């Protein structure tokens, strides 16, 4: 039997395969656990409630149904009516407290939880009461900071972005003349670490207005193709306040990106985001950002200064919650990038769609897809003096995740509840770029595994 070393790809693939199997086994088992807000087995109308107002079970299932559909106000009303009929029904009162919490009525939610805390409850319910009392205490704090730490590994089949064409379909050009590329796709593993913080400070104890910040960073080290190693650090600070029916978020942004320990670019600027909840299930937003990108620091005799210029991005998004577990989102983004040298300037339009399925208590499945169109402002004479580059890009991605406590149950381990915030996430993706200049056409299949710890300060 061979020795498993960090860079041995055979063992890394085996480890990744084992991780996929464990997460796959844990997802259905975990999703079947009782959920506080689940779907009733049948559709119940308000007319059914009017015909049987004293049917406790029917009223309870109606409340569960409405909560699952996102109608928390309707669920709250049904549960309030139910508790007037049966005030000692602890399960219904706990459900009522959770609905109130999700409605952001913290005072009423705390009142119901304190009533339950004086009663003799089964251990699972007692733990839920304690957990939500703790959540309410944290939510009332004016300063709330949440963070994450993670490590992971990724595999790419074409890490050097070599063209997938032979020059027969679309031209591979050098100085405008057809050429044959000798650069072949190279696969590679990378190892990564990442971290981030998100903070929010309420401007007053009862105000919804707040200052916020978010920052994140990743360091990615390639196993073989060292020149593709990178680090990426992002920061954002802004205000979040309500103006009638809108949430307005003015903010400033900064980012720095380095490749192989050499600065590639920095950018800084600001923008504003407008959000509106059209219904409890449906919300929309629009945003605009103006940034200045500086490529001056790329090498001593580089063309970095030619790429330097402003970047304007605008976009809009919409999100719809089918119920408490299924969400669909879409975004449209448009970029206009200026540069000191027009062949490096471009516009880019992108459409993104994602679907999120929550499987309960931290387990999830997410599908993402996007397509983009890009066109540069002028021909690049290095490739062609007459042909202006145009690209079409496609990305599809599937990711799943589950807390390690759920995975532990699959293999017969009872891990402590303190590890429930530690999640194993697995993903696979496909990226493709088609260009009218074959030099820039490529595709890549990737897979990654990440272990992520989410935490709250002051928890």
Question: What attributes characterize this protein structure?
Answer:
459 residues, alpha+beta, Serine Threonine Protein Phosphatase 5, Tetratricopeptide repeat, Porin, two-stranded antiparallel ribbon, 9 helices, 16 strands, 24% helix, elongated
Number of strands: 16
State the separation between the terminal residues, measured CA to CA.
46 Å
Number of helices, counting only DSSP H or I runs of 4 residues or more: 9
Radius of gyration: 26 Å
- Shape label: elongated
Helix content: 10-25%
Report the mean per-residue pLDDT as an integer. Answer: 84
Alpha-beta classification: alpha+beta
Poorly predicted segments: 1-7, 29-40
- Taking strands numbered 1, 2, ... along the chain, how are they ordered across the largest sheet? 1-4-5-6-7-8-9-10-11-12-13-14-15-16
Give the name of the CATH superfamily of the largest domain.
monomeric porin ompg
What is the N-to-C succession of helices and strands? HHHHHHHEEEEEEEEEHEEEEEHEE
CATH-level-2 architecture of the largest domain: Beta Barrel
- As a percent range, the share of strand residues is 35-45%
């Amino acid at each position: 039997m061979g020795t498993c070393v960090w860079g041995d790809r055979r063992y890394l693939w085996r480890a990744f395969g084992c991780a996929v199997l464990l997460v796959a086994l844990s997802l259905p088992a975990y999703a079947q656990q009782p959920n506080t807000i689940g779907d009733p087995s049948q559709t119940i109308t308000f007319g059914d409630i009017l015909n049987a107002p004293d049917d406790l079970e029917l009223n309870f299932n109606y409340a569960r149904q409405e909560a699952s559909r996102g109608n928390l106000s309707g669920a709250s009303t049904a549960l309030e009516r139910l508790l007037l009929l049966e005030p000692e029904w602890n399960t219904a009162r706990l459900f009522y407290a959770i609905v109130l919490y999700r409605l952001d009525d913290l005072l009423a939610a705390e009142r119901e939880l304190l009533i339950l805390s004086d009663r003799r409850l089964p251990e699972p319910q007692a733990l839920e009461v304690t957990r939500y009392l703790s959540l309410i205490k944290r939510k009332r704090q004016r300063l709330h900071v949440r963070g994450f730490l993670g490590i992971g590994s990724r595999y790419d089949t074409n890490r050097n972005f070599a063209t997938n064409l032979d020059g027969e379909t679309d031209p591979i050009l050098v100085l405008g003349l057809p050429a044959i590329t000798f650069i072949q796709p190279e696969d590679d593993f990378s190892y990564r670490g990442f971290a981030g913080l998100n903070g929010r400070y309420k401007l007053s104890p009862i105000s919804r207005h707040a200052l916020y910040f978010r920052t994140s960073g990743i360091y990615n080290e390639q196993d073989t193709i060292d020149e593709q190693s990178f680090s990426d650090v992002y920061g954002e600070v802004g205000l979040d306040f309500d103006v009638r029916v809108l949430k307005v978020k003015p903010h400033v942004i900064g980012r720095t990106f380095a490749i192989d320990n050499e600065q590639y670019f920095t950018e800084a600027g600001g923008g504003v985001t407008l959000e509106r909840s059209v219904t409890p299930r449906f919300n929309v937003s629009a945003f605009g950002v103006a940034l200045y990108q500086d490529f001056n620091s790329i090498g001593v005799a580089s063309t970095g200064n030619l790429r330097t210029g402003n970047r304007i991005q605008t976009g809009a998004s919409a999100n719809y919650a089918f119920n408490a577990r299924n969400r669909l989102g879409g975004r449209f983004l448009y970029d206009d990038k200026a540069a000191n040298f027009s062949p490096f300037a471009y516009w880019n339009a992108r459409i993104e769609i994602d679907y999120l399925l929550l499987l309960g208590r931290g387990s999830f499945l997410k599908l993402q897809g996007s397509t983009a169109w890009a066109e540069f402002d002028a021909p690049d004479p290095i490739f062609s003096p007459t042909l202006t580059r145009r690209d079409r890009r496609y990305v599809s991605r599937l990711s799943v995740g589950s807390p390690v406590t759920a995975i532990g149950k699959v293999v017969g381990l009872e891990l402590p509840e303190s590890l429930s915030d530690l999640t194993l996430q697995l993903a696979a993706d496909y990226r493709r770029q088609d260009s009218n200049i074959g030099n820039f056409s490529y595709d890549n299949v990737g897979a990654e595994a990440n272990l992520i710890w989410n935490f709250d300060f002051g928890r």
